[in-house]
Design a protein that fits this description.
This protein is mostly beta strands. It folds into 2 domains: 118 residues, Immunoglobulin-like (Sandwich); 93 residues, Sandwich (Immunoglobulin-like). It is built from 2 helices and 17 strands. The radius of gyration is 25 Å and the shape is globular.
């Protein structure tokens, strides 16, 4: 009677399975490129006037580009545009092209609660938008602690604290930047449940470890921009850099041809910034000067 060697059978079975898996994944090496429908090319205006506390805010940049097919690796830049911003006093701030698609102003004057109007003339079209410069209260302190994580080890959690004004409705947009993040991480919130109280947004990531630096930019934003960004983040899965499955229009209007609208949003924000390096200890409070 022949003796059945279980170990030999297991080895042969594993060898066959390995060969099948190699053949399967080898057959998946071909890149599948979908034949996607290309929409109408439109102007894109990236116009954020951001006044960081502790700076004059005189240097600002506005970028003008075009939409491109999904598989294109480069964003078409729009050169030769005329870009300016006018405040409610009639002061005109001209943005000059410093490189293809980038327009810079070096004498901008930011004033809290002042109204500003953007004008972009590009490729025979005129685009305009209007917004108010929104303030933000300073960051008071940053706290670090360890919090439980259902997936494994405890996470480092970083919170920054600031006092929300009680006499107004406020909206905020925060972005976090770090070497552990491929793109900035955004948080959008309002003061509906915290009006007049201390607000403390929190950030954590499995790769956030001692020695890692985290940069925080907290902006005061308008209600309209808050609603716009909420749609962007909901549809794009939390990243404004991914491609939304549908068109979301901002506040930029084409006064030459209303049907040929542009993408983007003209916004003016005061912002406070802070940089924090994660420490070894579990509970730390860092006062921001």
């Amino acid at each position: 009677m022949q003796r059945i060697d279980i170990k030999t059978i297991k080895k042969k079975t594993l060898a066959v399975l390995s060969l099948v898996l190699v053949l399967f994944f080898s057959s998946c090496d071909d890149v599948v490129k979908l034949d996607l429908e290309t929409g109408e090319t439109r102007i894109v205006v990236d116009a954020e006037i951001i006044w960081k506390k502790g700076t004059s805010g005189n240097e600002q940049i506005i970028k003008v580009s075009k939409t491109a097919p999904y598989y294109d690796n480069k964003t078409p830049k729009v050169s030769g545009a005329k870009v300016k911003v006018t405040n409610s006093k009639g002061d005109v701030f001209t943005f000059n092209e410093t490189e293809p698609g980038s327009y810079v102003c070096t004498n901008f004057v930011p004033v809290i609660n002042m109204d500003y109007v953007l004008s972009v003339e590009a490729e025979g079209q005129t685009f305009t938008a209007a917004e108010k410069l929104i303030s933000v209260t300073p960051i008071d302190r940053i706290e670090q602690k360890r919090v439980p994580d259902v997936a494994g080890d405890d996470l480092y959690e970083i919170s920054f604290y600031f006092k929300d004004p009680a006499d107004q409705v406020n909206f905020y947009l925060t972005d976090y930047k770090s070497s552990i993040l491929r793109l900035p991480s955004y948080t959008l919130f309002d003061d509906e449940l915290f009006n007049g109280n201390e607000i403390y947004p929190r950030f954590s990531d499995p790769d956030l470890k001692p020695g890692i630096s985290l940069s925080i930019i907290n902006r005061g934003i308008s209600k309209n921009f808050y609603n716009y960004m909420r749609l962007i983040l909901e549809i794009s899965g939390g990243s404004p850099f991914s491609i939304p499955p549908e068109n979301i229009r901002g506040n930029i209007v084409n006064t030459t041809n209303a049907n040929n609208f542009a993408f983007g949003y003209f916004r003016l924000c005061e912002a406070d910034t802070a940089t924090y390096v994660v420490k070894e200890n579990d509970n730390i409070t860092y006062l921001v000067k």
